Each structure stands twice: as structure tokens, then as C-alpha cells.
Model the fold of this input.
Amino acid sequence: DAGVIQSPRHEVTEMGQEVTLRCKPISGHNSLFWYRQTMMRGLELLIYFNNNVPIDDSGMPEDRFSAKMPNASFSTLKIQPSEPRDSAVYFCASSFRDPGYNEQFFGPGTRLTVL
Amino acid sequence: GENVEQHPSTLSVQEGDSAVIKCTYSDSASNYFPWYKQELGKRPQLIIDIRSNVGEKKDQRIAVTLNKTAKHFSLHITETQPEDSAVYFCAATLGEGGGNKLTFGTGTQLKVEL
Done:
């Protein structure tokens, strides 16, 4: 398996533009997580899905952020409009939701820079 | 919700020495405690984990201990090597009962000096 795939790996955009980050989880995994990492705030969980259903979006900073998971093999995180303070590395992670197995596998991340 | 505190934030050791990183958690129902290592510019990767029914687990030079009564767990790295230099994150989860949601500590920057 290729692991969790994220695209793009790097994104530079101007303030006010829409940004869409994409994630393909590991095949067979049924939980998907979006994290944001910054020096100031560390690794923050934004939202997670179980079986394509959003379970907890309490970490989404504000209405400018939205996430979807239309099927088991694809998820998007959208920021509209983007702001400089959104600059961070965004990680997607997936896991197999089972009582005895909880490891989360992280993708390579998308480094977002908003100018 | 769960809250995880991690100490120290930075740790510098000489090659060959041991390193210890400590974490505390708030929710006594948490039952799974992974440790992730993140090298500069890379993704976090699981290095060891422990479940609430186990007090200690060891894998070569790394070990994790868990004290459920005190709600704290620690990562121990022995015979440190330069390649151990990275940021280490502890985490806790309620597991299935919490949808496998992980709460991470703030990270420890470990530097192993020659």
C-alpha cells in the first residue's frame, strides 16, 4: 500500500483565495483525521470521520474551514477565504476503527503558505 | 474532553545517555497511549504504544511505562544516538468509545549531541 496520500504537498496562495487540500486514506481504513500543525499551537485535530461520517468537528477554527468525505477513499479540507494565519502544515491520517487496533497513519502533509 | 500535558518541551542529552519524556492525561477512561516521532520536515510516525491493561512495554532501546492511578506515562530511550534527534509526541485516546480520537501532547524536541 502506498500509505496515506495528500495533495498538493506545497501550496502558496494569496489572502482571500480558496484553498482545497486533498487526502486519500489507506485502503480498508474507515477513520480519517485532519490535523493542523504550527509552532505556536502544536498538532491540533480539526475534524475526523468514521465511515465517511463527520463525528467531531469541534477543532475546526471557524466557518471558513469545511471538510468533506464523499466516499471511503477521498476527503477534502477547504479554506475559503484563506488568511495568513492559516499558514501551517496540514496532515491527514487514517486508521482502522477496531477496538483492538488504533494506530493512526499520517500522510506526508501539505505545507500551506498564505501571503 | 481529554487533556494531555507533556514535559519537557526541549531535552538535550549526550550520545549514549538516556532520555525520559513524561506525559499526564486527564480522562481516566483513556485506554491507549501511543508515542509518535517526527523528524524535521517529515510526518509523525508511531514508534511505540501501550494499552491500559499493561504497565510497561519495551522495544529494543525504547520503552514506555504507564501508571493508571497517577494518570501518567513516560517514554524512555536508552543509549541515545544522533538519529534519535526529533520531536516526540505523546497522545491518549478513549479508543473505540471515543471514535479513536487522539489528543496529543505539545511535543518534546530531543537533541542528541555528539
User: Anything to note?
Assistant: The radius of gyration of chain B is 14 Å. Chain B has a mean pLDDT of 93. The first strand of chain B starts at residue 4 and ends at 7.
